[in-house]
């Protein structure tokens, strides 16, 4: 049988694993697909390649298709997010100098306490704090704003875009004092002795969606057969990735020269939830540091789209209600239901939810009976109930 | 005399531009390019397209700050450069004191955009700059980037050919030693095997060298 070839773009990060695993371990071939994986160097390039037809689908920051829907990018055909690829996987690092100052003031580097880390950081930073994030429209940007805006640093911090592989160097060159990035690039800075980890992204927001599978609307609606096959292959790869025994193998595959081109030991840290927080080798266990499947992680809740849209609208002077409506329309729960039901995915009864309401794993109504959603609380206790969202 | 004549015609044109007869001043262009040789070639190409103030930035460190200080009309950068995301951030900033910048694909004619993407060059252009002023610059940049692509492809092809020849030479030597045949016969044998199996000679040679390595 000849395979249908699809071109997929990804940016080298641990959370590109679903696409790489789908291609490498036969999940794509089972669906009659051959995935041509194209390594890209920036999110702008990823967006342009998808917009101009250079690739059929992309591993993309969850807020990026939302920014496109709000008109904050080049005028390309509409993008849709068909499924979420990963939740969590981000870490916040501070420079070696700041880490030293925090340590000597008695901070314990627990890696899971946003308040303690924020207070210690505020005391250690004499003036302005410059924080690096990978892209203006990124989950990292949302996490950093949420974390710092309530504290002493709110009025004396600025956020700057730094490409992930350059984060460590930007810290070393004094361009930024701290950063929030997806693995393995935080561990990479620690390994080079340039910084220390202070916080996991999931400690700020227990369920922060990080990357999504993004296609153009024309492709997703015009070629439903291929879209469905791709979604099923990737969904099965995500399920495989959340079997704990598979994580070491995943780290090996990801680290190959054609993908991340880094020692497997680095990406293993995030995948196994065993992070070295300093060059001295202090280890913090963080179970579920990154998830690819469990807790209905792949479902593109429309309420998530609204949450990111509200933030982006606020930053760019757009009307909130309109922004939320446009954003929700590009999170395609209908495609998810249509294409993944046949693969055996359990489907929630609702397509939107109150974000931040769950402190513990919670059972909700679903087609197969009960679905367990992971905790999704924000550290500041906010809950977000999107208006207009049909549940 | 002749040279001077051309020079004076040119400076007259410039003077007219500067006086705003055609509403044009010199454009300030930043080229973000780490490779010195490539940067020089791009600058050469741009110079030939008109009289511009061109600055090359070769370092990633402080890129955003340096661009903001220069306030360029156009920034040219390799489409695959990781620093592009830094420019994206600049393009979004549009406070009252700042000049909005957009990616060129936003409002250009489609052919030019496609040509730029295919050549692998991205342009960020300050708001309000007329398309007819952008076009010659982008055309020049596209021509240079095409040349780089060609050079890269040629280099890769040369390298591959060299590798092929090396491995075929090693395979020939193994065959000559193992079967006591001369070079010509060894070559003929490799070629026949490749043709019979419908494979490249270098692939057959590679397998032979690997197998021989296992056997000794």
UniProtKB/TrEMBL annotation, chain A:
GO terms for cellular component: endomembrane system. It comes from the Bacteria. CDD domains: PBP2_NrtA_CpmA_like. Gene3D superfamilies: Periplasmic binding protein-like II. InterPro entries: NrtA/CpmA_ABC-bd_dom. It is found in: Endomembrane system. SUPFAM superfamilies: Periplasmic binding protein-like II. The keyword Magnesium does not apply. It holds the Pfam family NMT1_2. Coiled coil: none annotated. Keywords: Cell inner membrane, Cell membrane, Membrane, Transport. PANTHER family: ALIPHATIC SULFONATES-BINDING PROTEIN-RELATED (PTHR30024), BLL4572 PROTEIN (PTHR30024:SF43). This is Nitrate transporter. It comes from Aliigemmobacter aestuarii. The lineage of its organism: Bacteria, Pseudomonadati, Pseudomonadota, Alphaproteobacteria, Rhodobacterales.
């Amino acid at each position: 049988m000849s395979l249908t070839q699809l071109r997929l773009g990804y940016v080298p990060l641990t959370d590109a694993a679903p696409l790489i695993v789908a291609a490498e371990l036969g999940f794509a071939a089972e669906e009659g697909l051959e995935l041509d994986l194209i390594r890209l160097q920036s999110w702008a390039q990823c967006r342009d390649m998808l917009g101009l037809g250079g690739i059929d689908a992309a591993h993309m920051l969850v807020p990026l298709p939302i920014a496109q829907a709000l008109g904050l990018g080049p005028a390309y055909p509409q993008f849709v997010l068909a499924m979420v690829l990963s939740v969590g996987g981000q870490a916040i690092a501070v420079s070696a100098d700041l880490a030293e100052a925090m340590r000597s003031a008695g901070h314990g580097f627990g890696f899971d306490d946003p308040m303690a880390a924020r207070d210690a950081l505020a005391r250690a930073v004499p003036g302005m704090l410059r924080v690096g994030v990978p892209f203006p429209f990124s989950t990292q940007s949302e996490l950093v704003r949420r974390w710092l805006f309530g504290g002493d640093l709110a009025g004396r911090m600025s956020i700057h875009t730094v490409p992930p592989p350059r984060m460590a160097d930007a810290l070393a060159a004094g361009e930024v004092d701290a950063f929030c990035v997806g693995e393995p690039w935080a561990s990479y800075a620690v390994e080079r002795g340039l910084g220390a980890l202070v916080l996991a992204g999931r400690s700020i927001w227990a369920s922060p969606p990080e990357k999504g599978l993004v296609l153009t609307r024309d492709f997703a609606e015009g070629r439903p057969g291929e879209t469905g096959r791709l979604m099923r292959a990737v969904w099965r790869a995500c399920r495989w990735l959340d079997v704990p025994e598979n994580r070491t193998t995943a780290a090996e595959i990801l680290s190959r020269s054609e993908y991340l081109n880094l020692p497997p030991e680095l990406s293993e840290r995030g995948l196994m939830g065993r992070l070295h927080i300093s060059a001295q080798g202090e280890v913090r266990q963080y179970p579920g540091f990154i998830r690819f499947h469990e807790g209905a992680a792949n479902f593109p809740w429309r309420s998530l789209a609204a949450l990111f849209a509200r933030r982006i609208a606020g930053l760019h002077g757009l009307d909130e209600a309109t922004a939320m409506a446009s954003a929700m329309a590009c999170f395609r729960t209908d495609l998810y239901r249509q294409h993944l039901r046949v693969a055996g995915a359990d489907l929630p009864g609702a397509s939107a939810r109150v974000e931040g309401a769950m402190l513990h794993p919670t059972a909700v109504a679903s087609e197969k009976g009960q679905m367990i959603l992971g905790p999704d609380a924000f550290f500041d206790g906010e809950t977000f109930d999107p208006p207009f969202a049909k549940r | 005399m002749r040279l001077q004549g051309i020079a004076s015609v040119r400076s007259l044109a410039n003077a007219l531009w500067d006086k705003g007869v055609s509403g044009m001043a010199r454009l300030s262009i930043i080229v973000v390019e780490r490779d010195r040789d490539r940067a020089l070639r791009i600058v050469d190409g741009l110079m030939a397209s008109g009289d511009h103030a061109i600055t090359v930035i070769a370092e990633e460190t402080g890129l955003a700050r340096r661009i903001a200080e220069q306030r360029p009309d156009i920034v040219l950068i390799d489409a695959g450069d990781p620093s592009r995301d830094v420019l994206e951030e600049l393009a979004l900033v549009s406070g009252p004191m700042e000049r909005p910048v957009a990616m060129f694909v936003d409002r250009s004619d489609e052919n030019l955009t496609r040509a730029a993407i295919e050549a692998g060059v991205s342009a960020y252009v300050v708001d309000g700059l007329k398309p007819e002023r952008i076009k010659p610059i982008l055309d020049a940049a596209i021509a240079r980037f095409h040349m780089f692509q060609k050079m890269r492809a040629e280099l890769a092809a040369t390298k591959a050919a060299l590798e092929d020849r090396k491995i075929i030479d090693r395979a020939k030597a193994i065959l000559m030693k193992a079967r006591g045949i001369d070079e010509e016969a060894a070559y003929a044998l490799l070629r026949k095997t490749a043709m019979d199996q419908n494979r490249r000679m270098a692939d057959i040679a590679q397998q032979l060298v690997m197998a021989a390595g296992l056997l000794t």
